[in-house]
Amino acid sequence: MLSIRNLEAGYGESMILRNVRLQVEPGQVVCLMGRNGVGKTTLMKTIMGLIKPRKGAIAYDGQDITAASPDRRAKSGIGYVPQGRDIFPQLTVEENLLLGLEAGSSRKSRIPDTVYDMFPVLKEMLRRKGGELSGGQQQQLSIARALVAEPKLLLLDEPMEGIQPSIVMEIEQVIEAIKASKRMSVLLVEQSLAFATSIADYYYVLDKGTIVAEGSSSSLSEEQVKKHLAV
Ligand SMILES: Nc1ncnc2c1ncn2[C@@H]1O[C@H](COP(=O)(O)OP(=O)(O)OP(=O)(O)O)[C@@H](O)[C@H]1O
């Protein structure tokens, strides 16, 4: 589904990612872990094409997309939910969702009902401005907007960060439902050991721009977390 080899990327002269390799199989939920500032967001942006790698290759769905534009990646079925709820505050919930249809690979002209099934709260708030929603609801809107396009690979950058526990639970349920549907792969940045071991199939730990540990999530132990993730 997604295969990254020998990736090197950064900002101007400063190289953040070095020799990164990572794999996401069809239907898998893969968790990318690592301390603050190690390059997780940089990796997500490079997968989405917002940062051009200096070295290495990214293949998606059997195609080399290393040089493809972000728009082409979205059209070919990669959905991206950036860190920090990047919704349009002046547009209504419905308008935000409709933008998701434009961006992605879906040929549908209406928002699929499955999105409202996953986020019933949004259906009740279709006419409200995005900026009037709570932080957690905005995060749900941001995820829903990506799902509207029915992507084949969903990239989620710290979707639970700074969100109240009840909404964290709802977002976890959505990720579980996506996994159960087997129609989408998910790569997400998430620090919680509980999440990584309960929902994810596989994990990678990034440290100083390189992958230092990986394995099936059931093998992820408290000790490894202490070694690689404790501050
Ligand atoms: N636009 C930018 N220009 C220059 N350097 C940047 C830019 N964005 C991030 N960096 C640097 O790149 C490094 C990796 O940042 P990145 O945001 O990828 O880390 P992260 O693991 O996602 O961290 P966090 O968990 O805090 O979000 C940091 O040292 C950061 O200061």
From TrEMBL:
**Domain ABC transporter: start-end pairs:** 2-231
Native species: Paenibacillus piri
Listed GO MF terms: ATP binding; ATP hydrolysis activity; branched-chain amino acid transmembrane transporter activity
Q: Which family does it belong to?
A: Belongs to the ABC transporter superfamily.
Entry keyword set: Amino-acid transport, ATP-binding, Nucleotide-binding, Transport
Q: Which Pfam families match?
A: ABC_tran (PF00005)
BP term (GO), one: L-amino acid transport
**PANTHER family membership:** HIGH-AFFINITY BRANCHED-CHAIN AMINO ACID TRANSPORT ATP-BINDING PROTEIN, HIGH-AFFINITY BRANCHED-CHAIN AMINO ACID TRANSPORT ATP-BINDING PROTEIN LIVF
The record ties this protein, via InterPro entries, to: AAA+_ATPase (IPR003593), ABC_transporter-like_ATP-bd (IPR003439), ABC_transptr_urea_ATP-bd_UrtE (IPR017780), BCAA_Transport_ATP-bd_LivF (IPR052156), P-loop_NTPase (IPR027417)
Query: What is this protein called in UniProt?
Result: Urea ABC transporter ATP-binding subunit UrtE
Listed SUPFAM superfamilies: P-loop containing nucleoside triphosphate hydrolases (SSF52540)
